[in-house]
Design the sequence.
């Protein structure tokens, strides 16, 4: 009788284990990473593919990206949501059988493997940028939420440039003009992940600046009262922008030459990695003061950039003061 009772209890416990779901704390299944969502998405994909998973993206928009990955009887379902221009939240759900773990690493927890894999992929993808990020002053970082990504449709082609709010109440954004000369549609991507339509209200090709109005109130603006006009050789600068396929990136640089005149316009020359889409990025000094706007880069060398000086920016704003008030 005792053996039968023990046997029954054993089968009952086994059934409980088989039919009961494994409960995982939310804190184990979720992480926030200090990197743009596109960058984290690529890091997740690199780790998954590196450990033998087949990866596909069933759904993706400005608010979230879903990644599904399969290997044998194991499956990841991962959701990436942008929190700001330089941060995103990742939620993961692992389903595996027969003691399988994602990296075939025995008893190591699947989620520990995932988070460690993402961090490793992020560090190896751009070590130079990561090292620079460690030195970015906090007074510069506070401006990130004021920066926007501007998507332009022209003749069926799409471009991405950068811009920033100068008047939160009026929804006014400043950017460069050269990519806005002929456009059919403008969409402005905000730091909270939303994409909204924009309208060009003023454009000046001579100084290469434009004003865009959006029907949305920004949480913060970049004030010209906290700006600086004159720069010196050797000054360290930081641009915050939206290079193509990214939703925000801080790029350091240094003033390495006296001002130059190109097509009648005075420009600062800097040693700074300027990528496609960086035009229109605000540039700050180490005290977080606005000092210039990125115009573009050298045609051959992308580490040589040219900036529209603060004097030109202020003159453009004064000429269009009726919009800015």
Sequence:
């Amino acid at each position: 009788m005792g053996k039968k009772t023990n046997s029954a209890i054993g089968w009952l416990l086994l059934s409980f284990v088989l039919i009961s779901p494994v409960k995982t704390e939310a804190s184990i299944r979720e992480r926030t990473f200090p990197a743009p969502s596109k960058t984290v998405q690529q890091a997740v994909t690199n780790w998954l593919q590196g450990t033998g998973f087949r990866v596909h993206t069933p759904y993706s928009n400005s608010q979230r990206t879903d990644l599904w990955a399969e290997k044998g009887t194991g499956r990841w379902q991962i959701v990436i949501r942008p929190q700001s221009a330089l941060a995103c939240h990742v939620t993961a759900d692992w389903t595996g059988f027969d003691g399988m773990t994602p990296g075939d690493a025995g008893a190591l927890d699947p989620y520990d493997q995932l988070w460690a894999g993402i961090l490793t992929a992020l560090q190896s993808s751009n070590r130079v940028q990561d090292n620079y990020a460690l030195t970015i002053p906090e007074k510069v970082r506070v401006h990130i939420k004021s920066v926007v990504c501007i998507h332009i449709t022209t003749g069926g082609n799409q471009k991405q440039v950068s811009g920033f709010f100068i008047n939160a109440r009026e929804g006014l954004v400043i950017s460069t003009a050269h990519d806005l000369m002929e456009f059919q549609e403008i969409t402005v991507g905000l730091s909270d992940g939303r994409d909204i339509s924009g309208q060009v209200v003023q454009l000046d090709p001579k100084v290469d600046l434009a004003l865009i109005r959006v029907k949305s109130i920004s949480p913060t603006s970049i004030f010209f009262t906290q700006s600086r006009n004159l720069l010196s050789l050797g000054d360290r600068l930081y641009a915050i922008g939206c290079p193509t396929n990214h939703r925000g990136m801080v790029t350091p640089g240094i003033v390495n030459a006296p001002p130059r005149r190109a097509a009648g316009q005075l420009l600062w020359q800097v040693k700074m990695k300027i990528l496609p889409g960086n035009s229109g990025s605000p540039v700050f000094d180490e005290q977080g003061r606005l000092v210039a706007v990125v115009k573009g880069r050298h045609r051959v060398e992308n580490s040589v950039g040219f900036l529209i000086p603060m004097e030109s920016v202020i003159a453009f704003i004064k000429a269009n003061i009726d919009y800015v008030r």
